[in-house]
UniProtKB/TrEMBL annotation:
Source species of the chain: Pigmentiphaga soli
Assigned keywords, A-Z: ATP-binding, Cell membrane, Membrane, Nucleotide-binding, Transport
UniProt record similarity statement: Belongs to the ABC transporter superfamily.
Name used for this protein in its record: ABC transporter ATP-binding protein
Domain of life: Bacteria
GO molecular function, one term: ATP binding
This protein's record includes keyword DNA-binding: no
Pfam families given in the database record: ABC_tran (PF00005)
Domain ABC transporter residue range list: 8-239
Length: 260
């Protein structure tokens, strides 16, 4: 079951790494709801638990207490309806861009040829039509991350989880990747969660920004981003954009994160 009001529901989520008196409480009392199709950025300083929370939503990390539900069902492990993207594109060096995009289909033992048109279309939309048959070493860092994005989307996931996917790229490529991501996301409007340290990246991409911080960490601010979609990069230059960024910067300053 999924409703238009709560596709992802986190209720009083707590995470302790390690056990007993030696345990480190990374997250406490994390509660929020994400609508179906919403694009949410998780923003906060290093060590505030962004990756931990993302991994728990993806079923890749256990919850110590509280509950996480996706589409009405409790999360109890990785789900095939989820696409994941990390800072490192982790492409297979001996496979072409197209083969890399189709790799999850192969892993799920599905009919690869049935997905090939969709994979080619994704690569075309990501500006990689001419790179379909190239190997990762023949591609730039930004191109490799575009391939990773296509790979995360090829099986049409309902949920797209991204952990600082552009943070290793130079500033110009990073901005271009943000635009490319929104172009692809506009097409299917998956529910998306994007982890970042960058305030501007969060405000440009998201419908809503959740700021994490505190000791132990929790959600310290939940801000709706008012800019219309489709969103042009020029929105970055508006006074309102800068005001929202300044507000978020204050929220982060007031809630430094605990470190293990
Ligand atoms: N496997 C683990 N065992 C023990 N502590 C951990 C483990 N993974 C993360 N932590 C700790 O939990 C806290 C949250 O880590 P996490 O990586 O989720 O933060 P983050 O906000 O994503 O950080 P960054 O932005 O630097 O990636 C940190 O203090 C980290 O040291």
């Amino acid at each position: 079951m999924s409703t238009s009001t709560g596709y992802i529901e986190c209720a009083a989520v707590r995470k302790i790494y390690g056990d007993g008196g030696q345990g480190f409480e990374a997250l406490r009392s994390v509660s929020f709801t994400i609508r179906d199709g919403e694009f949410v950025a998780l923003l906060g300083p290093s060590g505030c638990g962004k990756s931990t929370l993302l991994m728990m939503i993806g079923g890749l990390e256990d919850v110590t207490a509280g509950s996480i539900r996706v589409g009405g069902a409790p999360v109890d492990g990785p789900r095939p309806d989820t696409g994941v993207m990390f800072q490192d594109p982790t492409l297979l060096p001996w496979k072409t861009a197209l083969e890399n995009v189709l790799f999850p289909i192969r892993m799920m033992r599905q009919d690869v040829s049935a997905y090939e048109p969709a994979a080619r279309e994704l690569l075309r939309m990501a500006g990689l039509a001419a790179a379909v048959d190239k190997k990762p070493r023949q591609l730039s860092g930004g191109m490799r991350q575009r391939v990773a994005l296509c790979r995360a989307l090829v099986h049409r996931p309902r949920l797209l989880l991204m952990d600082e996917p552009f943070s290793a790229l130079d500033a110009i490529t990073r901005d271009e990747m943000g635009v490319a991501l929104l172009e692809l996301w506009e097409r299917y409007k998956q529910t998306a969660i994007f982890v970042t340290h960058s305030i501007r990246e969060a405000v440009f991409l998201a419908d809503r920004v959740l700021v994490m911080g505190g000791r132990p960490s929790s959600i310290v601010a939940d801000i709706r981003i008012p800019f219309a979609r489709p969103r042009a990069f020029a929105v970055n230059e508006s006074a309102e954009f800068n005001e929202i960024c300044a507000y978020l910067r204050e929220q982060i300053k007031e809630s430094p994160a605990a470190m293990a």
